[in-house]
Design a protein that fits this description.
Serine Threonine Protein Phosphatase 5, Tetratricopeptide repeat; 0% strand; 244 residues; 12 helices; mainly alpha; 2 domains
Amino acid sequence: MKNLEKIEKYVNGELEESDLWEFKKALETDVLLKNELRQYQEVMELAQNKEKQNLMALLNEIHQENEVSTKKLFLNRHKVSLIAASILLLFAVGGSLFLMLNRNSQEELFASYYSTESASFNVRSASAGMDQPVMQGMQFYELQDYNTALDMFSKVPDNIMGRLYSGLSHIELGEFDKAINDFKFVIKHNDNLFIDQAEWYLALCYLKTNQTKEATKYFEKIAGDRGFFKTKAQKLLEDLNKSK
């Protein structure tokens, strides 16, 4: 470029006043000078745009790094605070967190293995000699009117079938301690047809109320017998061991 030095001085404002006047006059008649100035300006504009882009990219990168550093600092402080708070909480509550998690897993197992026992078969096959309150109680149980069913069962407290369905009614009402007493009563009378059911639901009640040792004892007994709930007890014990 023939006039590069003059053009650079003109663009940078370095020309003396007399030289600046001559340069502007030459631009009106000198086509080469005019084209070279335009080319120089285009090149400079491209270079400036590139520099701007590089600068913006650099500034953005710095901003992001600062932002990340700030976030990391905040997160680290927050993390330290959380860790400290967690340690304090663990010291404060001891093993309650473990017990809560364990209780949740046991409640999930209970929900998976418990299903409402139907009374329809026993109602249909009931003998004419069955106590009338028990018969009525089972009918109310089947209608899911558990409170009325319990009123009926309570009138004949020594009836084994009545006590079994009394326990089942208490389970449906969330009254597990009362259900446990009913099932124990049934099991105590070893000469009846309802021991399998009573042991199974008793074990589930122990599981639900976080009495794991008692629950495991009954599940192991059921799993070792030849009763109806043998396979379920074996599977539940496997799931119980996995949740520990």
